[in-house]
Amino acid sequence: MRVLIVDDEEKITNVLASYFEENGDHTWVAHTGESAIHFIDQIPFDLLILDLMLPDMAGEDICQYVKLNYDIPVIMLTAKISIDEKVKGFKMGADDYVVKPFHPKEILIRAERLLPDSQKKQMIRLGQLQLYRDERKGLINHRSIQFTPHEFSLLLLLAENPKKVFSRDDIITKIFGLDSDINLRIVDQHIKNIRKKIGGDYIQTVFGLGYKINEKVNE
């Protein structure tokens, strides 16, 4: 499990990271909202643990950004105990809400309660297209589609984040890595090849911005 822990208190992030690492998970730590969003846009996290009181932006704003663009469970951490604050957090999309102080084991238990549904989503359906994460294969109208590794990774990236527009730079970074020296037009060629295999309706070109899944395919 890939976990991002966002809190401006280093003691809290260190303790939580230690517990999750001992549990066999991989953790990243951010102490500001800006660095958190940077990580979120670069790494496909399975869970976000998010403090509401950050030095540069409100945790609610980060939660809202995540829920608009990604499918990541969010556990909010806060010292605010009023019911109004909890309601506000849930309205922003929080999946769970923990009031400080807390024991790290409580966060682990809550995380494990949240994850089964997301981890069971090994198959993504988009209209007549089915993508299987673990097997890295695709079916359309129950017919097997042969993708290259990069084609499948690109299509899966878009399918996992259907509301988000990915620029060519975003795609290069996520598929080939931060330090890749790849021509941006390679992305266009991959998109062209994918469209040939599954049809042109599934991937939408957002002119001047990049590519996204056409959500109308599920209508």
UniProtKB/TrEMBL annotation:
Any Pfam family: Response_reg
Domain OmpR/PhoB-type, residue spans: 121-215
Gene3D superfamilies named among the record's database cross-references: 3.40.50.2300, 6.10.250.690, Winged helix-like DNA-binding domain superfamily/Winged helix DNA-binding domain
GO cellular component, one term: cytosol
Name listed for the protein in its UniProt record: Response regulator transcription factor
Keywords noted in UniProt: DNA-binding, Phosphoprotein, Transcription, Transcription regulation, Two-component regulatory system
Chain ranges of the Response regulatory domain: 2-115
InterPro entries for this protein: CheY-like_superfamily, OmpR/PhoB-type_DNA-bd, Sig_transdc_resp-reg_receiver, WalR-like, WH-like_DNA-bd_sf
Record's keyword annotation contains Transcription: yes
Location of 4-aspartylphosphate modifications: 51
DNA-binding region, residue range(s): 121-215
Keyword DNA-binding in annotation: yes
Originating organism: Polycladospora coralii
GO molecular-function terms, A-Z: phosphorelay response regulator activity; transcription cis-regulatory region binding
Domain of life assignment: Bacteria
GO BP terms, alphabetized: regulation of DNA-templated transcription
